[in-house]
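Protein Record: Sequence and Backbone Structure Tokens
======================================================
Scope: a single protein chain, as residues and as a discrete description of its fold.
Tokens: labelled as protein backbone structure tokens, with as many entries as the chain has residues.
Position: the record begins directly beneath this header, with no further notes in between.
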Amino acid sequence: MADWIVSHHIILAALLAGLFTWATTAFGASFVFFFKNISPKIYTIMLGFAAGIMIAASFWSLLLPSIEMVDARGGVAWLPAAVGFICGGIFLRLIDMLIPHLHLGAPDESKEGPKTKLKRAWLMIFAVTIHNIPEGLAVGVAIGALASGGDVVNVTAAISLVIGIGLQNIPEGFAVSAPLRGEGFSRGKSFFYGQLSGSVELLGAVIGALIASSMTTILPYALSFAAGAMIYVVIEELIPESQQSKHADLATISTMIGFAIMMILDVSLG
């Protein structure tokens, strides 16, 4: 009975965390009601900031706990972290191959995935939705780890990850809705689809928590899997896009600022 209560509290916590990150995406997307366009400079800064948050979260909140957990059990500390990390990247690569999408700001000839006749705007929405999958999984796995993580994963550490993901979702939400507005969508539709792209984080959080809390033996793999998926997004999408404009130096600085903020959150709270 106690196990049932704990597991259900974990799922509820994951649900609330997913709702929070979804809400921050919606908050960012709501900026489209006040601004029609997003300047290349601001867009570049947003991408860099999101990349920094995700890089720091991947290490401090996911990879490091995975390594420490296995080390505390007397196992080969690096093995689950390495295997899970690579599998996370492979998982995102497979999704890239299976779902047609177009990264924000990219020309039409840069479409990825299966051939499709879907309009450009829909392909952009799919791209951001793919991007949000690992963020939701990361939140869910970190919360699910509370059921069995012991001292390695604690409540404040999980909260810091949720806050960090939420922070980077604010500019990300606007970075989605503004281009849709530029594609001819009304403000209402731009906001709707911008916030909708964050809904996948809610699903990912619940799935991640279910896996992490019910399959404790694979928890170190699950933590590093989420980290690998997030780093794949950073390397494949965020950093290349942030470095394409003439404001690349600003992107680099904002990446470092995002990393520092997430590191401070994780170390001070965790």
User: Anything to note?
Assistant: Confidence is low (pLDDT under 50) at residues 1-6. The longest helix spans residues 40-72. The CA atoms of residues 83 and 221 lie 7 Å apart.
